[in-house]
Protein backbone atom coordinates (compact mmCIF):
# COMPACT_ATOMS: atom_id res chain seq x y z
CA UNK A 1 0.00 0.00 0.00
CA UNK A 2 1.24 3.49 -0.75
CA UNK A 3 0.85 6.52 1.47
CA UNK A 4 1.04 10.26 1.03
CA UNK A 5 2.59 12.19 3.92
CA UNK A 6 1.58 15.84 3.89
CA UNK A 7 0.51 18.81 6.01
CA UNK A 8 -3.18 19.22 6.79
CA UNK A 9 -5.19 21.82 4.95
CA UNK A 10 -7.36 24.35 6.77
CA UNK A 11 -10.57 23.03 5.23
CA UNK A 12 -9.86 19.49 6.47
CA UNK A 13 -11.00 20.18 10.03
CA UNK A 14 -13.55 17.33 9.99
CA UNK A 15 -10.83 14.81 9.10
CA UNK A 16 -8.58 16.28 11.82
CA UNK A 17 -11.40 15.78 14.32
CA UNK A 18 -12.28 12.29 13.11
CA UNK A 19 -8.68 11.05 13.24
CA UNK A 20 -8.18 12.48 16.73
CA UNK A 21 -11.34 10.79 17.96
CA UNK A 22 -10.18 7.52 16.41
CA UNK A 23 -6.78 7.86 18.13
CA UNK A 24 -8.45 8.50 21.47
CA UNK A 25 -10.35 5.20 21.14
CA UNK A 26 -7.15 3.20 20.63
CA UNK A 27 -6.43 0.79 23.52
CA UNK A 28 -3.14 2.64 24.14
CA UNK A 29 -4.87 6.04 24.38
CA UNK A 30 -4.89 6.23 28.20
CA UNK A 31 -1.07 6.11 28.23
CA UNK A 32 -0.52 7.90 24.91
CA UNK A 33 -2.61 11.07 25.23
CA UNK A 34 -3.39 13.61 27.91
CA UNK A 35 -6.90 14.12 26.50
CA UNK A 36 -9.86 11.78 26.73
CA UNK A 37 -12.24 10.78 23.97
CA UNK A 38 -15.14 12.35 25.86
CA UNK A 39 -13.35 15.69 26.22
CA UNK A 40 -12.42 15.78 22.53
CA UNK A 41 -15.91 14.76 21.45
CA UNK A 42 -17.42 17.62 23.48
CA UNK A 43 -15.33 20.28 21.70
CA UNK A 44 -17.29 22.51 19.31
CA UNK A 45 -16.62 22.47 15.57
CA UNK A 46 -14.97 25.89 15.87
CA UNK A 47 -12.22 24.31 17.97
CA UNK A 48 -11.43 21.79 15.21
CA UNK A 49 -11.68 24.46 12.52
CA UNK A 50 -9.17 26.64 14.39
CA UNK A 51 -6.88 23.66 15.03
CA UNK A 52 -6.83 22.66 11.36
CA UNK A 53 -6.28 26.24 10.20
CA UNK A 54 -3.47 26.88 12.66
CA UNK A 55 -1.73 23.59 11.90
CA UNK A 56 -2.02 23.99 8.14
CA UNK A 57 0.09 27.09 7.60
CA UNK A 58 1.08 28.66 10.92
CA UNK A 59 4.60 29.28 12.13
CA UNK A 60 3.96 27.86 15.61
CA UNK A 61 2.87 24.39 14.57
CA UNK A 62 2.16 22.06 11.71
CA UNK A 63 0.20 18.81 11.57
CA UNK A 64 1.27 16.08 9.17
CA UNK A 65 -0.97 13.22 8.11
CA UNK A 66 -0.52 9.86 6.43
CA UNK A 67 -3.18 9.28 3.78
CA UNK A 68 -3.58 5.86 2.19
CA UNK A 69 -4.16 5.20 -1.50
CA UNK A 70 -7.93 5.33 -0.92
CA UNK A 71 -7.77 8.82 0.62
CA UNK A 72 -8.27 7.56 4.18
CA UNK A 73 -6.30 9.26 6.93
CA UNK A 74 -4.38 6.58 8.83
CA UNK A 75 -1.84 8.53 10.87
CA UNK A 76 -0.72 11.92 12.11
CA UNK A 77 1.67 13.92 14.22
CA UNK A 78 1.91 17.59 15.13
CA UNK A 79 5.09 19.64 15.52
CA UNK A 80 4.69 22.57 17.92
CA UNK A 81 7.47 25.16 18.03
CA UNK A 82 8.59 25.96 21.58
CA UNK A 83 10.71 29.07 22.08
CA UNK A 84 13.69 29.29 24.42
CA UNK A 85 12.95 31.17 27.64
CA UNK A 86 9.23 30.39 27.62
CA UNK A 87 7.46 27.85 29.79
CA UNK A 88 6.24 24.63 28.24
CA UNK A 89 2.88 23.11 29.20
CA UNK A 90 4.54 21.41 32.19
CA UNK A 91 5.69 24.81 33.52
CA UNK A 92 9.36 24.23 32.72
CA UNK A 93 11.35 27.10 31.18
CA UNK A 94 12.74 25.92 27.87
CA UNK A 95 16.53 26.12 27.51
CA UNK A 96 16.49 26.07 23.67
CA UNK A 97 14.08 26.67 20.83
CA UNK A 98 12.80 23.39 19.53
CA UNK A 99 9.95 21.38 18.13
CA UNK A 100 7.68 19.32 20.33
CA UNK A 101 6.05 16.37 18.56
CA UNK A 102 2.60 15.53 19.93
CA UNK A 103 -0.53 13.69 18.86
CA UNK A 104 1.37 10.79 17.29
CA UNK A 105 -0.98 8.15 15.95
CA UNK A 106 -1.02 5.39 13.33
CA UNK A 107 -4.10 3.22 12.80
CA UNK A 108 -3.39 -0.31 14.09
CA UNK A 109 -4.01 -1.83 10.63
CA UNK A 110 -1.21 0.34 9.21
CA UNK A 111 1.39 -0.04 11.94
CA UNK A 112 4.75 -1.63 11.22
CA UNK A 113 5.00 0.00 7.78
CA UNK A 114 7.31 2.87 8.68
CA UNK A 115 4.60 5.51 8.89
CA UNK A 116 5.76 6.94 12.22
CA UNK A 117 9.22 7.43 10.73
CA UNK A 118 7.80 9.07 7.59
CA UNK A 119 5.52 11.34 9.62
CA UNK A 120 8.45 12.34 11.84
CA UNK A 121 10.68 12.96 8.83
CA UNK A 122 8.10 15.38 7.41
CA UNK A 123 7.57 17.05 10.78
CA UNK A 124 11.32 17.32 11.39
CA UNK A 125 12.00 18.72 7.91
CA UNK A 126 9.45 21.46 8.51
CA UNK A 127 10.67 22.02 12.09
CA UNK A 128 14.32 22.40 11.05
CA UNK A 129 13.24 25.07 8.54
CA UNK A 130 11.91 27.27 11.38
CA UNK A 131 14.57 29.76 12.47
CA UNK A 132 16.27 28.88 15.73
CA UNK A 133 14.98 25.31 16.11
CA UNK A 134 17.78 23.18 17.56
CA UNK A 135 16.05 19.96 18.55
CA UNK A 136 12.85 17.97 18.48
CA UNK A 137 11.40 16.36 21.57
CA UNK A 138 8.45 14.33 22.68
CA UNK A 139 7.17 12.71 25.83
CA UNK A 140 6.25 9.05 26.11
CA UNK A 141 4.57 7.17 28.96
CA UNK A 142 6.82 4.82 30.90
CA UNK A 143 4.55 1.89 30.02
CA UNK A 144 4.26 2.66 26.30
CA UNK A 145 7.10 0.36 25.27
CA UNK A 146 6.00 0.06 21.63
CA UNK A 147 6.16 3.83 21.16
CA UNK A 148 9.49 4.08 22.99
CA UNK A 149 10.98 1.46 20.66
CA UNK A 150 9.62 3.20 17.55
CA UNK A 151 11.01 6.59 18.64
CA UNK A 152 14.39 5.08 19.50
CA UNK A 153 14.56 3.41 16.08
CA UNK A 154 14.01 6.84 14.48
CA UNK A 155 16.87 8.34 16.50
CA UNK A 156 15.21 9.83 19.57
CA UNK A 157 17.04 9.24 22.85
CA UNK A 158 15.89 9.65 26.42
CA UNK A 159 17.19 12.94 27.78
CA UNK A 160 16.83 12.01 31.44
CA UNK A 161 13.92 14.44 31.79
CA UNK A 162 10.79 13.01 33.34
CA UNK A 163 7.39 14.43 34.21
CA UNK A 164 5.00 12.74 36.64
CA UNK A 165 1.47 12.36 35.35
CA UNK A 166 -1.02 14.64 37.01
CA UNK A 167 -3.64 11.89 37.20
CA UNK A 168 -1.18 9.39 38.73
CA UNK A 169 2.12 10.88 40.00
CA UNK A 170 3.54 7.36 40.40
CA UNK A 171 3.59 7.12 36.58
CA UNK A 172 6.10 9.05 34.48
CA UNK A 173 6.40 10.54 31.03
CA UNK A 174 9.94 10.25 29.65
CA UNK A 175 11.32 13.07 27.54
CA UNK A 176 13.03 11.88 24.35
CA UNK A 177 15.04 14.22 22.12
CA UNK A 178 16.41 14.31 18.59
CA UNK A 179 19.15 16.77 17.70
CA UNK A 180 19.11 18.82 14.53
CA UNK A 181 21.27 17.15 11.88
TrEMBL record:
PANTHER family documented for this protein: ACETYLTRANSFERASE, ACETYLTRANSFERASE YPEA
- Name of the protein this chain belongs to: GNAT family N-acetyltransferase
**Which keywords does UniProt give here?**
Acyltransferase, Transferase
- GO: which molecular function terms? acyltransferase activity, transferring groups other than amino-acyl groups
Which SUPFAM superfamilies does the entry link to? Acyl-CoA N-acyltransferases (Nat) (SSF55729)
Output the InterPro entries linked to this UniProt entry. Acyl_CoA_acyltransferase (IPR016181), GNAT_dom (IPR000182), YpeA/RimI_acetyltransf (IPR050680)
Q: Which CDD domains match?
A: NAT_SF
Manganese keyword on record: no
**Segments forming domain N-acetyltransferase:** 3-181
Amino acid sequence: MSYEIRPVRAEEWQQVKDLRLLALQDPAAPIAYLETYEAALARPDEFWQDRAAGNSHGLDGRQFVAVDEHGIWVGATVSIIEHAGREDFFGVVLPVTGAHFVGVYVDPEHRGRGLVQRLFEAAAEWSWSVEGVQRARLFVHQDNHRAQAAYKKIGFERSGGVVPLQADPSKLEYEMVLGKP
